[in-house]
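Reminder: ligand-aware prediction takes two inputs, not one.
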Amino acid sequence: MLVNFKRVTTLVSFIRRCSTLSKSLPELTKDRYPNIKRGDYAELNQNHLDYFHGLLGQNRVLSDPSDCEMYNIDFIKGVRGYSQCVLKPQTTEEVSKILSFCNQHRLAVCPQGGNTGLVGGSVPVFDEIVLSTSLMNNIISIDNISGVVVCEAGCILESLDDVLREKGLMMPLDLGAKGSCNIGGNVSTNAGGLRLLRYGNLHGSVLGIEAVKANGDVIDCLSTLKKDNTGYHLKHLFIGSEGTLGIVTKVAVHGPSKPKSLNLALLGLHSFENILQTYERAKNDLSEILSSCEMMDERSLDVVTSHLKLKSPIGDFPFYMVVETSGSNEKHDEEKLNAFLEGVMSEGIVADGTVTNEPGKMRAIWDLRERITEGLLHDGYLFKYDISLPIKEFYSLVPKMKERLGSDASRVSGYGHIGDGNIHLNISVPEFSPDILKKVEPYVYELTSTYKGSISAEHGVGFRKPPYIHYSKSENAISLMKDLKKMMDPNGILNPYKVLPS
Ligand code: FAD
Ligand code: MLT
Ligand code: ZN
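Here is what comes back for the chain with zinc ion:
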């Protein structure tokens, strides 16, 4: 089976919706971060363009600055490159030829999927060629019995999920950017999202990968088997390596069965302590049917109610939780959920709440949580942190940063995946300020490391965090990463300035 689907309108409208926010372009990365120097790469010339035109034709090579603009700016408008060339291959063979040519001519390349990444990894820093996988969007096969879907890297996550749901299956990951992000981007960032608690991360769900190395070699590890211990598990090198070790061209993912019964609760709570108590109770009382457990503070909810005019179905509280159950027996699931809710409410752990199994109402509750990222862009400039912490310290950084920044920040908010110990700390300021940046970094990373947390739980390191990777990884580990990079991409053409410190 080969299903080709057009880039869905949600992608275009999502990106447009967000790009109308700021009329002025963000400062060029090279000017905002003058310490980063352009590597010793060739500059694009007419001979290079002629080769790309010969390979892809005129329409799949963008070189007009206005056509290239959206590929140069990241989702949160914090970084901007000035690439003059966007390539849109349709096959692995084309990706291989492009990389082989770029490697020979020392042209740097920035791989890009849906460009929803939040660490500046998906756009060029200087003039790197953008290799967009957006036209590699065929589903190659779906096995109804095993649940395995094999597809090209440019398939949009939501479109894959829609196709699988028609067959009684689903994608094992879900995130607010699902209408735009590509499975290749998800794999390359090892994206977590809203249901990691239930289905685990992509190191488990991805069964196989086809990727192209910097020199054009195609690495075929596109196994669809759950068990395959023949040699080193090379697929793991590409999962989460953010386009620095190779370009992912195809993936095989295990899709679990679509649940028959789904319930969603939005809860209001008086303290963070109450969130911890509720999470513990949810784990124990709901156990195998708990599929998502998320939290947000009042300032995060305010982002979507004030800026996006969404309506909350419950009153105002300092904290909120979204708890989802999914299972196979409606009566059984409802009984369990009701018993859990009655328990936490009668004991005063949860102050108020609403629960629903109606699709429209569930969507409305999910929007309150999922659209915070989009809503925050209305605040101005965002310093965005994505941190794993021991569960008891989960919320500690938010009040600390609030106190440290005082009136410098217009909003310090915290929301995230409480079930995975992963908080998103967001600091809103009217506009970028190097002085405020100095107040926030490296303090935020030092604090995280004091608590033995991770400075990147799920978004990756990208362009924003390489100088700080040592807060979460040892010197020897970083050195081995550098060795791997050198071996797989000796000329350093793949996504330079990202992930590893120079
Ligand atoms: P891009 O942004 O295009 O690229 C991301 C990185 O992967 C870049 O370094 C790029 O060079 C590399 N890359 C892309 N495609 C390939 C490829 N085929 N081969 C090699 N390298 C490649 N992330 C989470 O983990 N959890 C969330 O819950 C979550 N929610 C989000 C909600 C919103 C509203 C937004 C805007 C973002 C969210 N993200 C989340 C971040 C982002 O969506 C994910 O990182 C996503 O996986 C990126 O996919 P993409 O296709 O947009 O990749
Ligand atoms: C989320 O969980 O909403 C995402 O990871 C995006 C964000 O951090 O804003
Ligand atoms: Zn997240």
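The first strand starts at residue 3 and ends at 4. Residues 416-417, 424, 458 surround zinc ion (ligand 3) (CB under 6 Å). We will return to this case in the review session.
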